[in-house]
Amino acid sequence: MRPLPLRQTLLEWYARYGRRLPWRETRDPYRIWVSEIILQQTRIAQGTDYYLRFVERFPDIASLAAASEDQVLKQWQGLGYYSRARNLYRAAQRLAEQFDGQFPRSYHQIRSLPGIGDYTAAAICSIAYRMPYAVLDGNVYRVLSRYFDLDTPIDTTAGKKLFTRLADEQLDRDRPGDYNQALMDFGALQCTPSLPECPRCPLRPHCRAQAAGSVALRPAKSKRSEPSPRYLHYFHIVSPEGTWVRRRTEDDIWRGLYEFPRIETPDDLPAEQMLSDARYAALIRSASTAEVLETLPPVKHLLSHRVLHIRFYRVSIPTPGFSLEGYAPATEEDLSHLAFPRPLAAYLERSAR
Prior knowledge:
With 353 residues, the chain is an alpha+beta fold. It has 16 helices and eight strands.
């Protein structure tokens, strides 16, 4: 595709308006990597504080690799998409074992690390090492699809191939890191998903979607299915032994995080019906003194592919001797060091007030 005056315009815009962010003050590949993983599913306003706390707690590969998974997940708590934290931890351990605690300078070696895909590998290589690899994220898709007025859906195989080739063709090979960051910032600040600043856009004279009146239609996407619902009932059981929790080990949401005893139902079940259900009776069968102190209104929690409808029940068992297979009692001190999914962490915070 014939190059238009894109690169120089973006670099000039970036010099004036680019965001000043803490990970842009370094070319340390470790810190660039951490920032990119955090920002995969997190807005910069929230991610910046998490990044600063994370690199303060784990300032380098060695400190991250030497930590326990629980410590890493606890530091990550609240960010969601916890597989990112687990992969960071696994990758740090591999770097410590196979690369003497140093980040490799090869795209393919970086790409082979757990949790690092094409985008993250390209970002690390271009920003830390000034290697000519183009990044492709939502901002880049949006800017390129509007600039060239492309109607190929970006979430199809054909779309990914087209935009990968186009991003590589447009890359500034002398300043790949600056160009990639300029393109991402331009999409985040100027060429936004809704209400883009078209009247004041420096690319306006050459923007084909602007000329065609199709800015609002770009980027094109194929239809996506609606996220499916799940109905979870969590029982905050407190006995003289402590609060009963377990670590999730299933290959499912929130793997590696802690949770209360849980019952999942195929449909929404009101609290009154759940408390008279045989499954609840089986849960507390060894505790004749169990008393439900509180039931909370349902909470809705959105994931990328699921809508979770969560109910919480606070259950007191005043007599000792309660046991629950697969769960263990935790003290208040224990709870403060365990990583819980965001809805459960919010519930615990509310309960502590």
